[in-house]
């Protein structure tokens, strides 16, 4: 069984406050993009999970979110057979694109199908939040408003057709540290999430792009100016807007024209500012638990 684990960007990201358990209340607009890792899953007679990946530096034991997700379901349902999982990573690691979370989401969907556990998408999402705040969304996919710690999801209409340029500098930002370093009292004007939702409902790409904002961005750019440089380059080269995704450091630019995006991608590659440059578009899901479409 082959599954695609799709990456996300945050068209808008606001943090409202800190909860007693240390997690933060968020309000974010999530969007799946056409960039994915591949999971190849097969049953084995020998019990247990054997995970292999093409990246030597990511763990293949319980620390890998794929392992965690598969183990959680297999233990709950007393699955006696085993699983062999081959994970091919394309989504940059620790990039703010939910690579690990999406791999976990694909594992939930894959194990459910492989062993005929009969869980609905909702039942999978209830379990998924135990692996990570973004994992339920990665099962849902498409365009959504995420609230709570990211697990309270409301589907939104598809966003207008557009092109997405990804630029990730060769630095790593820890999500936990990004949340810890966020000075909630110091936030002047919060991102206009309601305005963004309105623009999406009106199918207005230009209004949508102009309202895209990430509350983490100013603080992280102060620490890593290269993120600001990538943003500026994308906007100079025709992006309607370029914004950091999640806790960073990836920047995405939204374009209304594929050729313009391709030219911007060439400039970004030439500049040497980004380690990963990837030109793609948004992905709108078309119903059902379709993690392999
Ligand atoms: C910032 C966002 C935006 O989409 O994405 P990424 O940058 O990870 O892609 C998410 O909120 C990341 O969600 P996710 O990566 O699933 O978080 P988790 O693994 O559950 O948590 C990692 C750490 O982030 C902090 N955390 C996460 C989510 C949240 N709502 N509040 C938090 O404070 C916690 O300190 C937690 O220990
Ligand atoms: N399947 C996975 N893919 C990538 N990283 C993983 C995975 N499972 C666990 N990790 C660990 O999680 C950390 C961040 O993962 P990732 O999901 O790529 O970040 P982000 O949420 O910022 O997109 C990495 O340090 C990595 O070691």
UniProtKB/TrEMBL annotation:
Which terms does the record give in the GO molecular function aspect? 4-(cytidine 5'-diphospho)-2-C-methyl-D-erythritol kinase activity; ATP binding
Using the UniProt record, name the top-level EC class of this enzyme in a single word.
transferase
The answer on whether this UniProt entry bears the keyword Electron transport reads: no
Q: In which pathway does it act?
A: Isoprenoid biosynthesis; isopentenyl diphosphate biosynthesis via DXP pathway; isopentenyl diphosphate from 1-deoxy-D-xylulose 5-phosphate: step 3/6
Q: Which residues form the active site?
A: 8, 134
User: Where does the signal peptide begin and end?
Assistant: none
Keyword set, alphabetical order: ATP-binding, Isoprene biosynthesis, Kinase, Nucleotide-binding, Transferase
Cite the GHMP kinase C-terminal domain residue spans from the record: 197-271
Which reactions are catalysed by this chain? 4-CDP-2-C-methyl-D-erythritol + ATP = 4-CDP-2-C-methyl-D-erythritol 2-phosphate + ADP + H(+)
Query: What InterPro entries does the entry give?
Result: GHMP_kinase_C_dom, GHMP_kinase_C_sf, GHMP_kinase_N_dom, IspE, Ribosomal_Su5_D2-typ_SF, Ribsml_uS5_D2-typ_fold_subgr
Q: What is its EC number?
A: 2.7.1.148
A Pfam family it matches = GHMP_kinases_C
Record's keyword annotation contains Transferase: yes
Annotated residues that bind ATP are located at 92-102
Provide one Gene Ontology biological process annotation: terpenoid biosynthetic process
- Residues forming the GHMP kinase N-terminal domain are 64-142
Function field: Catalyzes the phosphorylation of the position 2 hydroxy group of 4-diphosphocytidyl-2C-methyl-D-erythritol.
The similarity comment for this entry is: Belongs to the GHMP kinase family. IspE subfamily.
UniProt cross-references to HAMAP family, sorted A to Z: IspE
Q: What is this protein called?
A: 4-diphosphocytidyl-2-C-methyl-D-erythritol kinase
Q: Which organism is it from?
A: Blautia luti
């Amino acid at each position: 069984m082959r599954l695609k684990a799709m990456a996300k960007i945050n068209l808008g990201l606001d943090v409202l406050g800190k909860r007693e358990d240390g997690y933060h209340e968020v309000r974010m607009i999530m969007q799946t993009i056409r960039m994915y890792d591949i999971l190849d899953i097969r049953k084995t007679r020998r019990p247990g999970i054997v995970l292999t990946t093409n990246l030597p530096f990511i763990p293949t034991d319980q620390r890998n979110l794929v392992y965690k997700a598969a183990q959680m379901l297999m233990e709950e349902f007393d699955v006696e057979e085993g699983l062999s999982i081959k994970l091919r990573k394309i989504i940059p690691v620790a990039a703010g694109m939910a690579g690990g979370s999406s791999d976990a989401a694909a594992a939930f969907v894959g194990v459910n199908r492989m062993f005929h556990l009969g869980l609905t998408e909702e039942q999978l999402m209830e379990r998924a939040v135990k692996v990570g705040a973004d994992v339920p969304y990665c099962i849902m996919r498409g365009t959504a408003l995420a609230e709570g710690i990211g697990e309270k999801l409301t589907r939104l209409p598809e966003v207008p057709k557009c092109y997405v340029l990804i630029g990730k500098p060769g630095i790593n930002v820890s999500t936990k540290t990004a949340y810890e370093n966020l000075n909630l009292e110091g936030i002047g004007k919060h991102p206009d999430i309601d305005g963004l939702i309105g623009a999406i409902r009106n199918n207005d790409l230009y209004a949508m792009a102009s309202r895209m904002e990430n509350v983490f961005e100013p603080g992280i750019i102060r620490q890593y100016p290269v993120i600001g440089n990538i943003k500026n380059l994308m906007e100079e080269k025709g992006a309607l807007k370029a914004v950091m995704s999640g806790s960073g450091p990836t920047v995405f630019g939204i374009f209304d024209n594929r050729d313009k995006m391709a030219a911007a991608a060439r400039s970004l590659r030439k500049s040497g500012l980004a380690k990963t440059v990837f030109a793609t578009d948004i992905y709108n899901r078309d119903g059902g638990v379709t993690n392999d479409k």
